[in-house]
Amino acid sequence: MLPNPAAKYTAFAPIQLVDRQWPSRVITTPPIWMSTDLRDGNQALFEPMNADKKMQMFKTLCAIGFKEIEIAFPSASETEFGFVRRLIEEKHIPDDVTIEVLTQAREHLIRRTFESLKGARQAIVHVYNATCKTFRDNVFGMSKDEVVAMAVDAVKLIKMLADELERTDGTKITLEYSPELFTATELDFAKEVCDAVTAAWGATPERKVILNLPTTVEIATPNIYADQIEWMHRNLARRDSVIISLHPHNDRGTAVAAAELGLMAGADRVEGCLFGNGERTGNVDLVTVALNMYTQGVHPGLDFSDINAVARTFEHCTQLPIHPRHPYVGDLVFTAFSGSHQDAIKKGFTAQEAVEQWAVPYLPIDPADVGRSYDSVIRVNSQSGKGGIAYLMETEHGVVMPRRLQVEFSGVVQQHTDTHGGEVSADDIWNLFAKNYLDSVAPVRYLGHHLFEHGSAQGIRLNVEIDGTPHLLTGEGNGPINATVHALQSAGIRIQVRSYEERSMVPMGEDGNARACAFMEIAGNGSGDCYGVGMDANIVTASIKALLSGINRIGVARNEQAA
Q1: What pLDDT sits at residue 396?
Q2: By the 8 A CB rule, do 234 and 266 touch?
Q3: Which of 252, 402, 461, 480 suits a disulfide with 218, CB 3.0-4.6 Å?
Q4: Domain range spanning residue 135?
């Protein structure tokens, strides 16, 4: 890199629009959407889509709700031409969908394009020519007048062919014109070309022309683009007969912002690809723009209720992967590994009511609205905390842990991830929980029990193994747990119960009955507090198992301290 980039690169000059209005505007209605996935996005692929994949993508776009779809550059190849013919002849185009085709401003290409459209109900013919100074001087060697004449001559030919096609086939043609490299074109000249085009077409409010103003190459911050769009919006002739369309590219990584600010500046339409596919760094990501609106309470008019299905179709047809952190659709975009994030999300879900405004921390959209489950919202690795672990235990296994147990168990998981590295799944977490709290049988193993009444006291006969030796212990107390504590004392096991909670588990047990889950916090002589957990169809049995689990965990803790 150069030590002084200003010696080679020049900052884009600001637009003189001192009374700009777009900064204070809010997007309240969706634009007209136009997908370029089958043309601009397809051209950018290592291996362009074949006819079957193009058909699958076309049907997916229709199902999402796109009413304008650019399907091909018919004059570019027989494959492109043939796909247009297949859609028309096999009647794959819904009545409310308008196909769009692209052509350069050259007579033989325009005529070939119209040949592809015979028999269509309606279509948009999109013609373009470059207008900026660099192309005028260095590529085409044309004056401004010659550039205007090229555009006007092309539009006049399109108008003639459109009138002829409507007479013979009943096809309704809409004109779209792009001053290619609009953002690098002098504004007054861009207006001159566009006004000449609308005049040549004879645009009226009943027969509007689409003026597409692209960031063919993104060369400035998105506020500059918004200024350019607002200037055109306020100065174009026949504004009531014009649809201003945006076509942002992503060279600077700000295509979504450019589209949003361009809409605030007065544009009516946005062109782009589903997930930002397209040449160089891609076209604007229409899914992100649409769902950004949705999170602001504006329905975009596009349906992403099953965004995973859309993503899988896109990946199959384009052979391009979607980044796991891609907004709204990435595999990890609704996933939190960070402990503090997980805790906030868990609490947010707990507080959220279905009828309330969405207000879950770190999640700008309800994953369910785009067909994503909550299963992947919280995942656990070495950076995770108790909130995420507790969430997975509750949602995956129906175990709602007391808070102090959450803290204790998170240390167990943390130790595991520190030792083994990487992510742990919900099943891994359950296995750790079972190993540490449910499956321990040393030093005390539960074999069975029998309750009996002894006057006003509760009695218990407890069958256990202690260090592998069977014991029949008897105790009395004011309830089953107290009686069990006294029975264990007769074998020299002295513990105190600090807290006790019991809950029914969801899902149900295998026998169709709810399983009971008991949590017991205990302390032994000379040891810290420790939790035990017991599960059983019978709550008393679950409680006894929880008590013994805690005793065994105290033994584990003591052994760890000794080590």
Answers
A1: 82
A2: yes
A3: 252
A4: 28-318
User: Are both 428 and 299 inside the same structural domain?
Assistant: no
Token duo for residue 544? 């006894």
Whether 324 maps to a domain, the answer reads no
Dihedral of CA 282/286/292/296: which sign?
Answer: positive
Rounded Cα gap, residues 174 and 190, in angstroms: 21
Question: For the packed helices 107-116 and 78-89, what is the interaxial angle rounded to 10 degrees?
Answer: 30
Distance between CA atoms of residues 237 and 197, nearest Å? 10
User: Is residue 15 one of the residues assigned to a domain?
Assistant: no
pLDDT at 228: 98
- Same domain for 344 and 376? yes
The answer to whether residue 266 is domain-embedded is yes
Q: How far is CA 80 from the centre of its chain?
A: 31
Q: Tell me the whole-structure pTM to 2 decimals.
A: 0.74
Which structure tokens are listed for 347?
């609490």
Of residues 292, 271, 272, the one with CA closest to residue 282? 272
Q: Are strands 32-35 and 68-72 parallel, antiparallel or unpaired?
A: parallel
How far is CA 502 from each of CA 58, 437, 439, 522, 535, rounded to the nearest angstrom?
55, 15, 19, 15, 10
State the pLDDT at residue 513: 58
The domain that holds 494 is classified in CATH as: 3.30.160.270
Which 3 state secondary structure label does DSSP give 44? coil
Q: Name the percent of the chain lying above pLDDT 70.
A: 93
State the helix-helix crossing angle for 187-201 and 222-235, rounded to 10 degrees.
50
